[in-house]
Fold:
Amino acid sequence: MSLILNRRTFLRGAGVACALPFLECMAPEVAAAESTVRPKRICFVYFPNGVGLPPKENKHHQDWSWFPSGEGDQYKLTKSLEALDGFRSDVSILGGLSHPLSREVLGHAAGDTWLTGGDVRGSSYKNRISADQLAARTLGEHTRFPSLSLSTDGGVGYKSRVSTLSFDANGKPVPSEHRQREIFERYFSLGGGATTKERRKSLKKKKKIVDLILDDSRRMKKMLGYKDNQTMDQYMTALSTVEGQVLRNEKWLDVPMEDVDSSNLNLNTDVTIDPESYIRATIDLMVLGFQTDLTRVMTYMIAREDGMGFGENFPNLALGIKKGHHGISHDKAEDHWVEWGRYDAWLTSQFAYLLKRLKETRDQHGPLLESTLVLYGSACSSTHNARNYPLVLAGGHSMGVKHGEYHVFEEKHTPMSNLFVSMLRATGVSVDTFADSTGPLPAIFS
Amino acid sequence: MTRSHFSNSMLTLLVMWLMLFSLPYCGLNVYGQTSDDSAVFSPTAATRLLAKYCYDCHSNGEANGDVSLDTFDIEMAGGKDAEAWKSVLDVINSGDMPPEDMPQPSDTERRQLTRWLTTSLQRVAQEHEAAPSDGVRRLTRAQYTNTLNDLLGVSVNFGDVLPEDGKSEMGFSNSASVLQTSSLHVDYWEQLARTALDAAIKTGPRPDALRLRVTFGENIDSQPDTRSGAEIRGYQAIPISKVDFKVDFLNQQGDPIEIADPNAIKEQLAKENVVGIGMRGSANDRFTMRPEGVLLYSAVPHKETTPKSWQGPSPNLKILFRDVLPIAGDFRMRVEAAKASFEEKQVYREGFISLRTQTPAALTENTITFLAKDCGSTKGMGIDDGVLYSTDLPKRSAAKYTLEVSQDGLYQIDLVHPWAPQDRMPSLELSIDRFREQQRLNFSARDSEKSRITTPVTLAWLKKGKHKLRVGGRFFVGFEKVIVTPLSSEDHVTQSLFGEAEKNQTKFFSATPSLRAFAGTRTDDGMDYRTFDDSKTLSETVGEFKQLDFVGRLENLPMPFYDADSADPLANIAIFGLWNDYLVKDRADSGPPVLLKSVEIEAPWFPVWPPKSHTDVFFPASELDTHVTPNGEAYTRAILDRFVSRAFRRPATPAEIDRYLEFWKATKDDAENYHQSVKEVLVAVLCSPNFLFLVDSIDTEEASTEALQSQLASKMSYFLWNSPPDETLVNLAREGELVRQKVEQVDRMLDDPKVWRMVRTFAREWLRLDRHENIQTNVQLYPEYTRFVKSDMAEETYHFLHHVLTEDRPAMDLIDSDYAMLNQNLAEFYGIEDVIGSHFRAVSLDSTRHRGGLLSQGAFLCGHSDGSQAHPIKRAVWLKEKILGETPPPPPPNVPDLDPEKPGFAKLTLKQQLELHRDKPSCLNCHQKIDPYGVVFQNYDAVGRYQAKMDGKPVDAKSVLPDGTEVDGIDEMKQYILEKKQDQFLTALVEHLFAWAIGRDVRFSDEQEIAEIVGRVKTDGKTLRSVFRQIVQSKSFSRN
Structure:
């Protein structure tokens, strides 16, 4: 505490008129005060290869076309989304959205850009920061970990076939985690271990350097000899912001982990035998993470595009369907619509499990779902057609989100990035634009 | 009435201003005012005049052209709205306002108003002058990279990860007003400082490099027990057979590693089996294996459609590595190759030959037709309505036939098949024996109506006898028939193919091929790649092998995301590749072929150890005058002194060094070793504002000569090189000699290769080459506009500016020149013959070519089109803004669209369509001053080619400019500028270079100085070089 005051006096006394916004957060008294503010969370869940969309004339259209029939609040769910029936007031179904730059990338590569809106066409892969990582920059200031990126397959995959949803500010993929026991041990267990020592050391280094630079800046300003120097002031404000971050990170190293009840977690599932148990165990970990405020930003890639990874086999393991997921999506046989639809419905039921758990789990303000904005969907409507992504938005009632309708947007006017602009703003991240957005989404968000 | 508003002091002031009127340095002559109008004027009177003639359109919510005069501060208190009033003054002076058809002020009224505005502006200018600017601006991304690279001796694009810099109104990123600093920058600078110092400082022994050599030759690796190499597959892969190349891992001396133990050999091979050779994107008949190597014809760029255009030109050779490459450091690719002979006539060797035309063969009595329904052997297929289709699209399917050929000869193979939508990825794969052709089919809108489509697949030279024919593949489109048509020796296709070999031999007999290297990552449909180093020429003697070294930096190339856990067979695959850079455009042309014998890769590559970057920081203690203990305090002090002075671009003060030394002492015990402890201090140095910011004007009273001249050295080097000063400049500054030798230094610096850094950045920002980079050109309309043409056009402009600068050419060359900077590829695109080789050089052209000067260059013309046709308005605005220095006002919001439904609209020429556009009175006012400047470019289509006729009609490029001059086409426009607008162009040129040099946009208060510079340029030879010289000597730049 005294350290903080010293720093503040030091800077003020040097005649620097700059804001020191976050240092207050470090004081324990104020941390308690912070908990009266309801947190805002954001979460993304992805499945590959699009969804079954039998044409209108086809006899299976009524049962197994993923998008509902009707519009607005009068929409009627088909069997594919049946599992959402009990959640009508918690979800909005979105049609017509896609990323303009990915519409021509031959399908599967669009998965690289679902959360980024980047440009991966042709022979020059230019990806961008993903919406979750952008959110993490702001939301990460309140939690021990800025974000959590999960997947069934782990790692990053490779360009045009990634196995993670998250990309950093340089457009490089953030590795996703998939080993449940390791995830639990790393994030939820007490102690922290060797990494804490490393972190402490590197934070100390950074602090010393920032001190030295601040000193340099004061002298430079004096040497420049003018009363008001906007450039230098801006620079020194930036420095103090960085310093605040360093101090905050350091403080977290001292805050003890909350003791969590992990007795109902099953960390012994085998994804190659029982995918449903595996996926639900991951979902349980996510809910636990939100409940303990470990982080407020999460992504989960249930399966990879193009028949890669464990997910390809899920239809067989879970429903006894002969073909793999990618195979079904390319099938032309008549009943493949039924198979595809059944698998879509199975995926929906996993998503419904997430919604159920978020609804029944509470923090001190109420059900988690009310303060968590969730997006579920894919980057192709049906395989290789990177338009009209199947998307369901859920939760976030306390963040100004109004559910209960099926919205269809016009591709020409509304790029998918507009959805991210609205989601980020609802989460408290002030953005003017995201990737190629043209404004906020014209619905759902207040 | 007006007098009563004045107090005595105001009156005194006014008299003083009137006196100042007559002082010459006020430069009033610019406005043509006479001094005998002594009417006293006031803000109220000015407002009254404005209300009378201007407020109708420009007040009370009416804001035509975005101008609301009633919201501007008429008193210009503290300089407020001064820029806006300047614009008002300009349009009144030029007679543009009020518009012709509106009531005009009397001569007296006009004079009163303009004089009043002029004097007010003069006052503001003087006030402004007394208050200096901030005096400091941060390095731009490019400057940051150049500065680190020069300081540390490491060539990595460090600044690429920094957030993009904004652009000022004049378009420059080095402008103080747009160079913001955020906490993100601070975080990045710290990380980058560490990364850069880690790359420069290398302690310990020289690390083991990956060294391997691939040697090519038909059947060179025939022994199965010891065979190395892999065949990496995937979509449309064309791997070279394992028997045709050999992989050797080399020891540090460059010799193949000898392993005696047979088990160890197996282990070694497993390591070597991560290397494969791929030819994806290459036509079958443009490469072949020979005993001494692989033969590569000249590369033909693909039309820009997916996925072929993503796979490199045809042919290109790729070395594919899985997992083995390091991720950072310099690397060397050593290639052994020669110009190959033409002896063997391709056409007599068995194999596939790419089609020369896209026409199905005419059926003859000898045509062999294979029907789907008669196929006896299929895999993964089902039959429906006579069509065999794939039952599991993503999997490979096959229909097999036996083809019996009665004589050696040329055949064409066509496929008859149904239509399929694009999201089914309709593809086909045809193989005959070991020859294979793979295609992705692109259908036109009309094709969807047809029940059957005939697609020509390939030509083939086949020997007499039985052959295995297979058709199918992944995402197979299905088929009804395979048609094999023999082409007789009289057939025109046969004739031309036979003739080709002869023609190629004659055409390319004396041509010398060159090689281009590239590197990147394999992606599913193609590759993410970039070329590196230069194109290098081989020996002109056939069969004379030459060793070529291509050097690059791994961090600067699109290497894979390495995922150690990944089990994907296609993950982590890095590519190093080559193509024959004597580019040709016609698939019938072989170009001079290259015989490639071997490729050797060494990564990381260190020419010396420890690297120079390390010893530049940690120089030997023996270099110092006094004896010091290595790694002790005195040694550290010396290191810091040298480094800090270089980093801060001025001599370090003893107090500064003391502080850094204290920092070192306080932190050194946490470090692993001595070098790491010093590195920590250097990180702090590279995060200091003294490094990150350019100081424009330190307090001159207190500063030493050395400090002042160091500041000048910095200003000069960032102006002319976009980089920090070099040793010569630093030494001159230290000796106090720089001011005296300013002009000589400018000349030296302009001749230094580092001037390219400035040319590329300045030209890109001034001439808006970013628009060229981002334009999406319609490749269906312009199939010859490949990515090679696109990048060569940008190079044309950069080389042109560089040439005018370094050859001391007249500045007016920028408007019209009797030469253009071209290479072979671009010259051929423009229709200019006899330019050989991929390097750029000045080619003399007469005016019939319409290629001289900036106004006729592809990068400008393409970037200012709409991708399908010329865009005269974009071109007009560019011409006015960038060349003539008159920025037109922006369009109002909600400009209504032209009505294309109007009958006969489509039949009008673009000029007539524009005239319709302008016909609306609200548009006419601005557009009659804009459009005429764009119509003159109408002969240049959307890809910058000059056409006398378009759509069968002669092009109408006649224009009437606002001053009444008639110009017909680009040549007369250039003449007009040369004759009537030279001063205006020179002023615009000086303004842009001035803004770049000073680091802020030009303000109206600079007008006088700019005019003076233009005047001196005219007496200094009026060359582009003289502009640089005069700007460096100008008051605003030098200040001393």
Observations:
- Chain B has five domains: 3-130, 210-342+508-603, 349-488, 616-692, 757-980.
- DSSP finds 31 helices and 32 strands in chain B.
- Chain B touches chain A through 74 residues (CB under 8 Å).
